[in-house]
Write a structure and sequence with these properties.
By secondary structure, the protein is α/β, with parallel strands linked by helices. It has helices at 17-26, 69-77, 99-105, 127-136, 149-152, 168-173, 185-195, 216-232, 234-240, 244-260, 267-285, 292-298, 302-312; strands at 6-12, 35-41, 58-62, 84-88, 93-94, 112-120, 142-144, 163-167, 199-209.
């Protein structure tokens, strides 16, 4: 066991049944956090019995228009006084009792400023989503630094706040998360961390169960926001290489895996969903040339655009 203290921060919005399971499993961790802070959007939608799953958990309620991917997490982190802050989403369920222990251990390397967990598919995940999780979250741990840019490209900066820990002293020194942020606050921070000489650890033995069964339209919306975030930060994403190459490789390898494992009938689903994802991504990259009403139809994050419009006025 190490002596690093930690706070777990969980932003929530209308949390479902998996949220209670998350809290129950946090309570059984071999390395317990000093504090669990839940930042909930919409007081009226928060389950009244959720706190019983983790006695002592603190809940802060904010209005929906106040939520921001970077700003809300930034606010919560600035309320922490522990060595580490661990961000989790409401549907990221610890796979075992060693999640926090394994994440914390990564900071034994003094150069590591961030560490993120492996994401495993839930039982209801379809074959395409199962392979996507395997593609993005493999079984081998790694520590990434600037020396990996030529080999890994933009994946050097990959980090996921679905379940990620940050060294708070480094986080404060680098200025925290960008906000407002439509998407990718974790990768944008990781790029700054690596640019400052730090490292990002991928902890394959720190595991959460987290997957989605999104349809093509929802994928379009999410990838639109992804494209917007990349267009806003060409100094990161153009320098390290575009995401298209990784996306093409994912489609190609997923198709091969589906055929090999008897899921050839799912190929049309793969190609349709991939087309929607790519269309959303390209539209997001070109968002500055789109009319504002169309942007609002394409985005998955309307409150972000409301904030931007208000600030511009």
């Amino acid at each position: 066991m190490n002596e690093r203290t930690m706070t777990v921060v969980i932003p929530t919005f209308r949390p479902g049944g998996s949220f209670r399971t998350l809290l129950e499993r946090l309570a059984r961790q071999t390395e317990r956090p000093q504090r669990v802070l839940i930042v909930n959007t919409g007081r009226e939608d928060f389950p009244q019995d959720a706190e019983k799953a983790y006695p002592g958990a603190e809940v802060i309620h904010i209005r929906r228009e106040e939520f921001d991917h970077g700003g809300t997490r930034d606010m919560a982190a600035r309320m922490c006084e522990t060595d580490l802050v661990v961000f989790m989403t409401q549907d990221a369920v610890p796979a075992d009792s060693h999640l926090l222990e394994k994440l914390s251990a990564a900071f034994g390397d003094p150069g590591v400023g961030a560490a993120y967990a492996r994401q495993l598919p839930a039982k209801d995940a379809g074959p395409i989503e199962r392979y996507t999780r395997r593609f993005n979250y493999g079984p081998e741990s790694m520590v990434k630094s600037a020396s990996d840019l030529d080999r890994l490209g933009v994946q050097t900066y990959f980090c996921s706040d679905v379940c990620a820990a940050y060294r708070l002293s480094t986080w404060r020194a680098l200025g925290g998360f960008e906000h407002p942020a439509i998407f990718n606050e974790d990768m944008i921070y990781a790029a700054g961390l690596i640019g400052a000489g730090g490292k990002v650890a991928y902890c394959a033995d720190a595991r959460v169960i987290h997957s989605h069964n999104y349809g093509p339209v929802r994928q379009l919306h999410r990838n639109f926001d992804l494209g917007v975030s990349q267009a806003q930060h060409p100094e990161i994403f153009q320098k390290a290489g575009a995401s298209e190459g990784t996306g093409i490789r994912l489609v190609r390898e997923t198709a091969g895996w589906l055929i090999k494992n008897g899921y050839a009938a799912r190929l049309p689903e793969l190609f349709v969903t991939s087309a929607f994802k790519y269309a959303g991504y390209r539209l997001g990259k070109a968002y500055r040339h789109l009319p504002y009403p169309l942007i609002l139809k394409l985005t998955d994050n309307r409150p972000y655009w409301d904030k931007v419009k208000k600030e511009n006025q």
